[in-house]
Design brief:
Layout (H helix, E strand, L loop, with lengths): L1 H13 L3 E7 L2 E9 L11 E6 L10 E4 L30 H13 L9 H9 L1 H15 L7
Antiparallel strand pairs: 1-2, 2-3, 3-4
Helix pairs in contact: 3-4
């Protein structure tokens, strides 16, 4: 298992959708890094994440948490993410960590009211999109980390 995770860590480090992906506290089962969204308003900043692998990986899915506050219907205030890919019902052991990160970045770039943990924001996005996007932009400027220089 550790060999597979080490290979996947190397792959994630080469991906341009994240920055500074590394084990946290020297633990290969816990990674941290910055996600770099592509679409406004989230592309004005970077978002710290933590990816935690089970000791039973790849038979059980990893969990992913955003550590940076984000105004997004798919992320709750504690940073839990609405990500069907990592649910027990949908997890496939051949899924790679890079796919989990790519799926998360796609979700951040494209808020979907149907994939919501914050139903108030999903409703706002559907009913008052201009209000949602303005608030998301303000929140990003206040809370997101600076994007690293290329």
């Amino acid at each position: 298992m550790a060999g597979r995770i080490a290979k996947e860590l190397d792959q994630a480090r080469r991906w341009d959708g994240a920055w500074d992906v590394r084990p946290l506290d020297g633990n290969i089962l816990r990674w941290g890094g910055l996600l770099l969204p592509n679409n406004p308003p989230y592309n004005a900043g970077a978002f710290r994440f933590e990816l935690t692998f089970s000791p039973h990986h790849p038979l059980t899915p990893p969990s992913i948490t955003l550590r940076t506050s984000i105004y997004h219907p798919g992320v709750d205030p504690d940073g839990h993410v609405c990500q069907p890919l990592t649910s027990v019902q949908n997890w496939v052991p051949s899924t790679r960590a890079i796919q989990v990160l790519q799926d998360l970045l796609l979700m951040l770039d494209n808020p979907d009211p149907q994939r919501a943990l914050r139903h108030d924001l999903a409703r706002e996005l559907q009913d008052q999109p201009e209000v949602f996007w303005r608030r998301a932009e303000e929140h990003t400027h206040l809370h997101a980390e600076p994007r690293p220089s290329p």
